[in-house]
């Protein structure tokens, strides 16, 4: 209801000037509204704004505008404080609009300058400008620093208390903070890539009328209000706004609104200020829209706070009392542009931003309206400052003291008309709002301090310095200002009788001098008094310091003594520790040596143990062999005894028979004798005959192979006189006596005696090997018996075959070992040779049987009948000699994949003597030739 009424009233008003007469009363200033028109973006654009005068513009609705359709071609005239045509330069805008605000700032007044307008109308251009055509903000900073340059307080003398106020620090505290900052600054190098906004010396002027008896400090803050949230653009952190925390607006002790926790940087030069500004500008949210390539999507507020405090009567240091501080601030606000979404065609985030921008601008507008109504009608309607952050923050400017100025930026092209007219209406309304004037705070006057004391002090200091210099006598010094009682005496020359006016002048001059002298006296007395009290303070302080010094010296001496004692203890402890370390290292070395010795001894011991075990085993083996040999010997002796006993018995029998025959009849007797003799012979032959040659009886298992072997044709034709089992010439009987049908590996040279003779017995179920080149021939043959066959001529040139037999025992290394346990000797000799009989006999006598019991005794000596019987087979006698009970063990062992022949004699005893062993060894060696 209210807003409709005020709208109606607004429409009634054509120019802001109309109502001004009523409002300009008392200590209040109206909001000053300026209008700046930007150049037309394109030459083809049609303008809807015409400048009627330096303060007035005329707005003509284009036929395309919405208001044209509603209201017709009604032109509107708007008056401003000043209208800046499109060709106005930045300096002019600054001089007219911002310079008075900076002057006010320096004098302790608050100021607010904001740019308002449609998007793309030149608000940012006006406020910030471009690097070589800078806008209002950089110019404000340039001129401010140029003005206060020499009057600046040292950094950190004024320190923000985070509650929108400042503390005053002593020079020492400030210096400490500066040193800390210097240290920090060294590690964080400054970024100098920002465009330079500094202006040339000639461009920047100085503001007159500054109070030189004050010290100044400049602080800046830079915030943005985006989507109705406040962000600190100068906050420490990465240069992205996304992560910045939202700040709150609060009220300080003096009921002023401020952004709580905002970063407030103390600035000492325009360049530093630009760096801070660019730091914030990089974070400010800008975006490309259809109407502006770089459109501000937030309201930004750059605030310059100037703190000033009077210097003491000596004109040197700031008075350390925060009550005397004068704080003024100038807020430079670049509002985001109002935009109609149907024109911008914004969507998504841009649309939301536009909605928030328009809403906050609407709140600003309604606040201004209500404020104006309150001021006009003296009502107290509540102004909705809190509805938007921007109005909440500006509350003090409108309700407190200060100067508010607004630059309305407008793009004169016809397309912007509908929005521009809204801006103009707002501007018109805002110009009617009044703001109370700022009060200038002059703390010095309340303190009774002299004006110009700083300059006086400076001059006096210079003079004092100069006096001390050797060339002082040549210098002209002006100490007048300090002790001057006023200007020189007026002329006392009496030139006429009408000299009363001269006397009056002189009296006045003298009175002025007297009063000045009195003032100086008072000042001197004050100073004397102060000096005295200061001297007293200093004296007291000095006494305190002295007594403190004495106690401190005592403490220091005690501490030194303690230190010395501690150092001595530390040194002795170090020495002890060193000696312990040395001992420890010695002990470690000794322990290591002992350990080494121990290991060596353990090794020796284990070696000895092994050797002993080995020796023990060898001895055990030898012992066992010896025992076995002894047993064999005993057996042999026993068998010899038995044999002898048999022979004796036989002889006795023969003798008995002969005796019986001799004692019997004549013819019959001879026949009986013959019969008896034949019986004896038959008995003997049956009992003692061995197949092949000996008449002695053999156990059945030894005889079987030969007896069962088929007889040759020649032998079949032999008369019945040939003995049973004699098959020496029959090749069918050439099977080895001990071949018991188990699997055999038959190892024989290829050029052995031709087959078909008794000299090459036939071993059934055997695998024949010519040459042993691979142990697999033995190991993998699945045979359990091994037979090595050798043939050679004996000393008489007779052929002799030897069969060395053994068991194949697989070894854990994958090889095999052959344990020889039997030897067969096959010999052939001619019966015509006499001496052969004796040899044969000896050969027969040396035949032995294996320990597994094949035979129990020796063959009896050849009888002539035996020999004769054999000679009937074609003149050559063949004899099978079984040599057994072999006490020798020969073994093949596989070592590292190669077949070696190793001979180990367990124990040896044979009737053939050692020769036999040697020859066995020779034969084996012979057959090992050619093995890998
Ligand atoms: N007075 C002027 N003289 C020359 N160029 C201008 C002037 N005013 C504005 N411009 C140009 O117009 C363009 C838009 O101006 P600017 O960005 O200042 O608009 P804006 O009102 O800040 O827009 P927004 O509200 O979208 O941020 C810029 O390229 C700027 O250089």
Automatic annotation (TrEMBL):
Q: Name one GO biological process term.
A: mitotic spindle midzone assembly
- Main subcellular localisation: cytoplasm
- Matching InterPro entries: Kif23_Arf-bd, Kif23_Arf-bd_sf, Kinesin-like_fam, Kinesin_motor_CS, Kinesin_motor_dom, Kinesin_motor_dom_sf, P-loop_NTPase
Keyword check for Hydrolase, yes or no: no
Task: Name the UniProt key words of this record, in alphabetical order.
Answer: ATP-binding, Coiled coil, Cytoplasm, Cytoskeleton, Microtubule, Motor protein, Nucleotide-binding
Q: Which residues form a coiled coil?
A: 549-583, 627-661
Looking at the record's lineage, which domain of life comes first?
Eukaryota
Q: What molecular function terms (GO) are annotated for this protein? A: ATP binding; ATP hydrolysis activity; microtubule binding; microtubule motor activity
Q: Where is the composition biased (Polar residues)?
A: 864-876
Q: Where do the segments described as Disordered lie?
A: 1-22, 707-741, 830-876
Kindly give the SUPFAM superfamilies that the UniProt entry links to this protein: P-loop containing nucleoside triphosphate hydrolases
List the PROSITE patterns: KINESIN_MOTOR_1 (PS00411), KINESIN_MOTOR_2 (PS50067)
Q: Which Gene3D superfamilies match?
A: Kinesin motor domain, Kinesin-like protein Kif23, Arf6-interacting domain
Location in or out of the cell:
Cytoplasm, Cytoskeleton
Q: Which residues bind ATP?
A: 117-124
Pfam families the UniProt entry points to: Kinesin (PF00225), MKLP1_Arf_bdg (PF16540)
GO cellular component terms, A-Z = kinesin complex; microtubule; nucleus
The residue ranges of the Kinesin motor domain are 30-433
Stored SMART domains? KISc (SM00129)
Tell me the protein's name.
Kinesin-like protein
**Gene name of the encoded protein:** jg23143
């Amino acid at each position: 209801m209210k807003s409709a009424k005020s709208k109606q009233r607004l429409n009634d008003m054509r120019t802001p000037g109309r109502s001004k007469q009523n409002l300009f009363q008392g200590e209040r200033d109206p909001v000053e509204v300026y209008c700046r028109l930007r150049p037309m973006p394109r030459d083809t654009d049609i303008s809807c704004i015409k400048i009627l005068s330096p303060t007035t513009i005329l707005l003509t609705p284009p036929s395309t505008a919405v208001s044209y359709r509603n209201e017709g071609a009604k032109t509107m005239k708007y008056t401003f404080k000043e209208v800046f045509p499109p060709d106005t330069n930045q300096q002019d805008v600054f001089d007219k609009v911002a310079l008075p605000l900076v002057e006010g700032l320096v004098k302790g007044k608050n100021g607010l300058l904001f740019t308002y307008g449609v998007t793309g109308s030149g608000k940012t251009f006006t406020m910030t400008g471009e690097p070589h055509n800078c806008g209002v903000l950089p110019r404000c900073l340039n001129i401010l620093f140029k003005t206060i340059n020499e009057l600046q307080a040292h950094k950190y003398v004024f320190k923000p208390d985070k509650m929108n106020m400042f503390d005053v620090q002593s020079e020492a505290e400030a210096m400490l903070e500066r040193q800390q900052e210097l240290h920090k600054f060294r590690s964080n190098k400054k970024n100098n890539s920002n465009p330079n906004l500094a202006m040339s010396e000639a461009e920047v002027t100085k503001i007159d009328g500054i109070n030189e008896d004050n010290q100044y400090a400049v602080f800046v803050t830079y915030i943005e209000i985006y989507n109705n949230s406040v962000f600190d653009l100068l906050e420490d952190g990465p240069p992205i706004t996304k992560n910045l925390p939202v700040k709150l607006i609060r009220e300080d002790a003096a009921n002023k609104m401020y952004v709580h926790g905002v970063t407030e940087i103390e600035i000492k030069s325009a360049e530093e200020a630009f760096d801070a500004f660019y730091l914030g500008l990089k974070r400010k949210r800008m975006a490309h829209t259809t109407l502006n390539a770089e459109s501000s999507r937030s309201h930004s507020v750059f605030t310059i706070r100037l703190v000033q405090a009077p210097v003491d009567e000596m004109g040197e240091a700031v008075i350390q009392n925060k009550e005397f501080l004068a704080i003024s601030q100038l807020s430079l606000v670049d509002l985001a542009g109002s935009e109609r979404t149907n024109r911008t065609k914004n969507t998504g985030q841009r649309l939301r931003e536009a909605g928030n921008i328009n809403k906050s601008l609407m709140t600003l507008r309604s606040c201004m309206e209500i404020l104006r109504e309150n001021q006009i009608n003296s009502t107290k309607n509540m102004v909705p400052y809190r509805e938007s952050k921007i109005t909440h923050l500006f509350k003090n400017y409108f309700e407190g003291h200060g100067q508010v100025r607004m630059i309305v930026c407008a793009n004169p092209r016809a397309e912007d008309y509908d929005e521009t007219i809204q801006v103009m209406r707002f501007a018109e309304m805002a110009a009617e709002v009044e703001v109370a004037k700022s009060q200038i705070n002059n703390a010095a006057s309340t303190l009774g301090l002299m004006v110009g004391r700083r300059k006086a002090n400076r001059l006096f200091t210079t003079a004092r310095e100069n006096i001390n210099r050797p060339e002082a006598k040549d210098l002209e010094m002006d100490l007048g200002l300090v002790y001057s009682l006023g200007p020189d005496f007026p002329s006392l020359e009496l030139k006429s009788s009408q000299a009363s006016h001269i006397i009056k002048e002189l009296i006045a001059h003298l009175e002025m001098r007297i009063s000045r002298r009195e003032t100086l006296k008072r000042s001197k007395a004050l100073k004397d008094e102060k000096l005295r009290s200061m001297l007293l303070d200093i004296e007291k302080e000095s006494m305190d310091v002295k007594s403190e010094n004495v106690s401190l010296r005592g403490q220091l001496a005690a501490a030194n003594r303690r230190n010395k004692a501690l150092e001595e203890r530390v040194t002795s402890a170090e020495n002890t520790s060193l000696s312990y370390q040395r001992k420890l290292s010695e002990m470690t070395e000794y322990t290591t040596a002992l350990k080494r010795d121990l290991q060596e001894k353990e090794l020796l011991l284990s070696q000895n143990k092994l050797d002993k075990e080995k020796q023990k085993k060898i001895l055990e083996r030898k012992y066992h062999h010896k025992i076995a040999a002894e047993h064999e010997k005993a057996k042999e002796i026993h068998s010899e005894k038995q044999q002898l006993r048999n022979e004796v018995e036989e002889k006795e029998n023969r003798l008995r028979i002969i005796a019986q025959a001799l004692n019997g009849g004549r013819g019959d007797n001879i026949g009986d004798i013959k019969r008896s003799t034949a019986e004896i012979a038959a008995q003997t032959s049956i009992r003692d005959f061995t197949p092949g040659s000996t008449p002695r009886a053999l156990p059945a298992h030894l005889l079987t192979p030969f007896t069962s072997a088929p007889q040759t044709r020649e032998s079949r034709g032999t008369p019945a006189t040939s003995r049973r089992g004699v098959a020496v010439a029959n090749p069918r009987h050439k099977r080895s006596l001990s071949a018991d049908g188990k699997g055999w590996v038959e190892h024989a040279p290829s050029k052995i005696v031709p087959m078909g003779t008794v000299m090459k017995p036939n071993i059934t179920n055997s695998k024949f090997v010519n040459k042993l080149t691979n142990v697999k021939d033995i190991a993998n043959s699945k045979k359990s018996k091994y037979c090595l066959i050798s043939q050679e001529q004996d000393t008489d040139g007779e052929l002799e075959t030897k069969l060395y037999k053994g068991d194949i025992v697989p070894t854990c290394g994958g090889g095999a070992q052959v344990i020889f346990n039997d030897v067969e000797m096959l010999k052939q000799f001619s019966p015509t040779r006499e001496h052969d009989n004796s040899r044969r006999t000896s050969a027969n006598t040396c035949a032995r049987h294996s320990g597994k019991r094949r035979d129990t005794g020796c063959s009896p000596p050849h009888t002539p009948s035996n020999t004769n019987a054999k000679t009937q087979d074609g003149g050559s006698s063949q004899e099978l000699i079984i040599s057994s009970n072999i006490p020798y063990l020969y073994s093949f062992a596989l070592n590292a994949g190669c077949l070696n022949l190793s001979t180990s004699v367990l124990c040896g005893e044979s009737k053939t003597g050692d020769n036999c062993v040697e020859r066995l060894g020779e034969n084996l060696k012979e057959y090992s030739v050619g093995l890998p």
